[in-house]
Amino acid sequence: MWCKYCNMETNENICSTCGNETSVEIYHATFWCKKCNVPFVTIMENNSVKSGKCPSCGEESNIRYEDIRPVFPEERILGEMLCNVPIYSWLNSSVWKAKDRYIVDGISYRTTPGVYEQLDLTTFREKLKKNQQKNNKDAYPIFNNYIAKFVDLNESWLNQFTQESVNWVRSTRENPKYRDMNFMVSFSGGKDSTAVSDIVMKAIGSPRIMHLFGDTTLEFPLTYEYIEKYKATHSFTPVRTVVNKDQKFQDLVDEIGPPARLMRWCCSMFKTGPITRKLNQMCKVHEDDENKSHDRIFTYYGIRKNESVSRSKYDRIAGTNESIKIRKQVVGSPIFFWKDVDVWLYLLANKVIFNDAYRLGYDRVGCWCCPNNNQRSQFLSRIYMPEESQKWRNTLIKFAIKVGKPDPEVYVDSGKWKARQGGNGLAISKQIKIQYSNCTSEEDARVFKLQRPLNEEFYSLMVPFGFVKKGRVSLNEVVVYHTVSNMQIISIIPFSQNEYLYSVKIKVLNVKDKEDLFRMIGYQIRKFNSCKKCLKCESICKYGAISITTQNGYRIDSKKCRHCLICVNQKYLPNGCLMGKYLRSKEDKNEN
Question: pTM for the full model?
């Protein structure tokens, strides 16, 4: 094997020099065997293979799928109704799903997005529920027979990719770069993290590894049921639920608007932020060892490169690049090269319990109202969660009216709310604009507008720039000294200005690029003015120096801060504050 990072050959899956993954992806494709009537996986040298030979019967097949998954009896009824075929006509068939098509005994039935808009939901829901109740008793023995054939036919491939993932996990734990870390599993309740959980425990030979479930409070009801079922069947596995108890999703939607595809403030606030807090509790930072302070946690995630274009660019191990949401952890992906067909082959072959939402036809089980959900997921939520879905639609319409959309219902039902950018139409967007005037009496000094009186929280925000100390007592001055030169670089003085109710005068000196420093100071002023406790800053601080609470506001611990300036770095925190990114209005779009 070859390590592309060290540019050297190695015999290990994980390079002992840099700790990066060196293994090569095993390319594989899925074909349909007409004789066995189930899909089979074949290994290929490149992505151009057009046919495969069934490992069981030897039948040659050119019916290829990029990916495929089983259709459980509950969803089979749904498929029959959506494809407008007689109910139970697929009862004795081998039924699978590939993208937007149902594959029934090798015959393709396509469902179009328009079908979800044309249905009478109430009638459809009642008919579906009635037929599902009658269906399962007769359908599962037939379904199980096809699954048994699918598992038996693909046994060799199952053993190969399982062993590769198990060996990979073992290599991470034995690697000198990681072996002293605290290892844990990020557990979402979805199929991928379920597979990772089982693989990791198989690799280490023990169920005793910490699992963290980030409860966004927006999970499917069936996800909560599954988490409890998992705990009951894995009594030796510590499963900790972390939740943001300081914020309520609905209150924030009313204030700053719903999350959108490019504005998913909910992720930081309700998932990565609370998880960061839990990690900080679990693994205390070594203040006397700067090099090891951020290498304390190795987390196994259920990330797969085949899930999306963006994830295809990820590394199997990531711990230093800007894509990492929680910078004090290293992220490893045991099932990085798996496809959907592999996940289901593994779960079904090993009889691993999983979230029942998949039986209903959901492709993913994250937040049920996520703006990244496709039309099918929204349709399923309207079927299985009618009250919550209607309440969410009402919330979106209320928001559309608030920001002045001419046809609120069309704006919501067409999905345009998912594409919104910025805080246009929201009064709160005015708070995030950094407003200042140049001081007329002093050079390199600016008077910044504040939304509230100057206090200790403000001075705490200056800690990343250097040592914060008291200055001239007569002026109530606070000064910041450079950590290396010990020269004064920032002067902060309370100031009164007629056009601003609250303001502060800040002067920079003894620095080469004063505009750059003013820009970063502006980021901190934005946080002081408009912080909504999204917790993003806590997540990007690998030293655990930042805490954001209801009681104390935004605080930076001067004893923990290493002045790395990542919290004021545009690369890691656009606009210096997520609210600066999410609530900008059109006239502010050029402001950094």
Answer: 0.89
